[in-house]
Amino acid sequence: MSKTVITISREFGSGGRTIAFELAERLGYNFYDKALVERIAKESGYSKDFVERRGEDATSTSSFLFNLSRSGSGGYDGVSGISDKLYVISHNIIKKLPEEGPCVIVGRCADYILKDCPEALHVFIYADMQFKAERIVKLYGEMEDVPQKRLEEKDKKRKVYYKNYTGRIWGMSTNYDISLNSGKLGIESCIDIIADLAQR
């Protein structure tokens, strides 16, 4: 059965967003990255920039899942803090995306949120430090003498955010259907592999 929902989790600088975008273009799927941020912003009342910044910021680490379990079907009762409320909104939107048509979703714990979706293929993209460092210097204008620090900081936030809201370890292979090393395989090969798996 073909996979009509693809979640892409990725290390910063690995090219995961590029892979997701080009994959969606090739398959004719809806693409949710900035578009998802816009929807969260609209529903929450916060600006897009604010939502994007707080999207990987989890300040409380112990009680969120417990509180969420007590809040019922995605409400705000028992949920405190801006990051927690943004997560609940994001969670509820992502749960509904498969109903809107085939899609590729970038980040935001979509692999966990849709873990029970039979139509979903969950992918993790990673790469070695040199590949990622060279990529962010080239694409994002990062300073050549400190890209490793930037990479480590971004991925550290993602690990904390993911652990806080899923209880799982970010990047662990058992959380995904496939993990791909974009540094060794190349961006195009990753797209080819995922597209082939999705269409089987």
Commentary on this structure:
The protein is an alpha/beta fold and 200 residues long. It has a single domain (5-194), classed as Rossmann fold (3-Layer(aba) Sandwich). Helix content is 52%, strand content 12%. The chain contains ten helices and five strands, in the order βαβααααβαβααβαα. A five-stranded parallel beta sheet has the order 2-3-1-4-5. Helix 2 crosses helix 3 (48-54) and helix 2 crosses helix 5 (82-96). The chain starts with a strand and ends with a helix. Residues 60-79 have low confidence and may be disordered.
Give the arrangement of secondary structure elements.
Blueprint: E1 5-10, H1 16-27, E2 30-32, H2 34-44, H3 48-54, H4 64-70, H5 82-96, E3 103-106, H6 110-113, E4 120-126, H7 129-140, H8 147-166, E5 178-181, H9 182-185, H10 187-199
Parallel strand pairs: 1-3, 1-4, 2-3, 4-5
Helix pairs in contact: 1-10, 2-3, 2-5
What distinguishing features does this structure have?
alpha/beta, globular, five-stranded parallel β-sheet, about 200 residues, 10 helices, Rossmann fold
